[in-house]
Amino acid sequence: MNVPTAGATAAEAAVETIQYEMTAFARRARASAGRMHPELSLVSYTLLGHLEERGGCRATDLAAHYALDKSTVSRQVGSLERAGLIERRLDPEDHRVQVLHLTEAGQEILAQVTRSRRTAFRERLADWPEEDLVRFAGYLERYNAGASAGTGED
User: Fold this and answer.
1) Mean per-residue pLDDT for 96-125?
2) Contact 63/70 with Cβ under 8 angstroms?
3) What is this structure's pTM?
4) What's the Rg (C-alpha) of the chain?
């Protein structure tokens, strides 16, 4: 566990602990993504999930949504295309624009990894009382709703 700075208020200590624990969570998430599907990084999984949720979008939309550099998104998209997980289609309303969509293989892998992640969460939280789960879910929703877009710091 993180040791708060000497003389910190309870709120300051709590924020330090939250930062420490969220960083540990992010490290575990990145590491477990590779174990769940060796070819699918956490970033790739996130991009596939976004494409599924939106029913497709442009690469520039992905970059803007996740506050990523266009070259970073371009590399990820290229990798996902080469793996056969996404494809480009012309926008029916503007043929100058290409929209990224999941392929059938992309949908299958996303579903497989999502099932594995849910199972892992259920196992990790199995001994939590229902009221703690509901409270924790609410806190996470509240935290993510208040996240400032584009800072890259949370």
Assistant:
1) 92
2) yes
3) 0.74
4) 19
